[in-house]
Amino acid sequence: MTTPIKPTSWTYAEEYVAEDEVLAAARARAEEVGAVAIGPGGGAALRFLASVLEARAVVEVGTGAGVSGLWLLRGMRSDGVLTTVDIEAEHQRLARETFNDAGIAANRARTIAGAALDVLPRLTDGHYDIVFCDADKREYSAYLKEALRLLRPGGVVAFDNALWHDRVADPAQRDEETVAIRELGREVAEDDTLVPVLLPVGDGLLLAKKTWDPGA
């Protein structure tokens, strides 16, 4: 058994890839409107993932003020397009400010205001490299089903808050959101068509690759 990571090492890892002024401003906007943005460690992981996949098409569920969206866009191909969905139109306005401040071309970020489970079914099957989910935790399982339809083979679905403030690992915690995230983790782990990993960055980042072949 390895020694658990100490808080100082966790903080060092979280801050290893520094955020610039644009991301700092976006994070401040998010706090002002009560949107909890992904942490720097999780954001860096998303950028790395988008870069490794050379992502051209990404769906984001939960726009916030554009923190995670900017991390993703900075890892995607220069011609890549982010489709970001949020029920709060004001959050999307703030995200567009963030993208503009970062010099992201307007045609690279498509914002759709609406409930995720109303919008996702309208998107194209098998078209996306990444589906990133950071919205209503109670709907995570439903987002997974939509993501598996939307992803191309080899694409990756990602869920933020997979540890949910240390509650998921504690079986005594039975509130609705914790149970939903715990069940999502079990569902992903037991799906033979997925290759999963749970990263202890930020509040937990659950990733799963859609295999090329169900038997792979």
UniProtKB/TrEMBL annotation:
Pfam families: Methyltransf_3 (PF01596)
SUPFAM superfamilies reported in the protein's UniProt record: S-adenosyl-L-methionine-dependent methyltransferases (SSF53335)
Assigned keywords, A-Z: Methyltransferase, S-adenosyl-L-methionine, Transferase
Domain of life: Bacteria
InterPro entries from the UniProt entry: Cation-dep_OMT, SAM-dependent_MTases_sf, SAM_O-MeTrfase
Protein name: Methyltransferase
Entries under Gene3D superfamilies matching the protein: Vaccinia Virus protein VP39
Organism, scientific name: Nocardioides gansuensis
